[in-house]
Amino acid sequence: MIWVQLVFWFIYLDEESLFTSPAVGIEAYDMLGRTPDTIVASRPLKEGVIADYKATEAMLKYFINKALGGVHLFRPEVMVAVPGGITSTERRAVIDATIAAGAKAAYIIKEPIVAAIGADIPIGSASGHLIIDIGGGTAEMAILSLGGIVCSRSVRIGGNKLDKSIQEFTRRKYNLAIGERTAEEAKIEVGSATFLDKKLTMEVKGRDMISGLPKTIILTSDDVTEAIQDDLSGLIATLKEVLYDTPPELSADVMNKGMVLTGGTSQLRNMDQLFSKAIGVAAFVADDPVLCVVKGAGIALENLDAYKRSILATR
Ligand SMILES: Nc1ncnc2c1ncn2[C@@H]1O[C@H](COP(=O)(O)OP(=O)(O)OP(=O)(O)O)[C@@H](O)[C@H]1O
Ligand SMILES: [Mg+2]
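Above: query sequence and adenosine-5'-triphosphate SMILES. Below: predicted holo structure tokens.
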């Protein structure tokens, strides 16, 4: 059995090389923004759903081969985590791509549920749990009880959106065009969800928008915090919507236990503080927040019976 979480860059030359010799993941990421015309850089998934079907299929095939070794005799069962807000058409595309990539069976499960399983939350209990998974493409927020989602929202605000906002900000404030990777580095290096008492700074290189020449500026943590204000407000507004829909007993549970944050973007400095301040409930970042979804998917696949109720579709 194997499990995958669908997130990766994929770089290839043409349709033929897509299945034979693509650069995947970190290797592809390192080429990002640096490819000549003859090379295609593709993000098979955007905002949690399939954006490029062929590339997604090739990527899954690559993962399956990597997990099972080059020559394998059996076809694996695959658990795929998808955003809570996925449509039935998008869901079908995920199943089709997984089967086409060589899986014997494909199970679909919603990300907030597997994130919670991976964060060691006892999702089967008759008690409300608030889980917030903020990844690259989307933020998923859900109240879970008895192994299911009671109410949830999925909003297309995640790390990639923050990177875009930082790029826009440097363009506006410093007349500096910077690449997506540079923006992400700045976010991780000096970014914070709240303004810091002790400012952090870093050098950022890009292209001056007026002269067209390379230029270096000093970017501060305040710059990043300011750049991502709208995105953070969007996240808080979404969380408030979820809480507004939450039945009172479960709200009381959340008050008592607090909320759990998972996903790469939950590692942004002070993300937990931002949420707990905004709604007055304690917030905790899970251990290994980036791995919660994939760990949870693995646990669900190995205990299919126990998590049967949480699985959305099977083929
Ligand atoms: N220390 C950090 N601070 C801020 N952001 C971070 C940090 N580390 C990783 N990230 C961001 O986390 C994001 C990736 O998170 P994750 O791996 O959970 O996303 P994903 O599961 O691929 O996306 P999605 O759940 O939307 O499909 C990236 O945007 C990355 O920039
Ligand atoms: Mg994710």
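The first strand starts at residue 2 and ends at 4.
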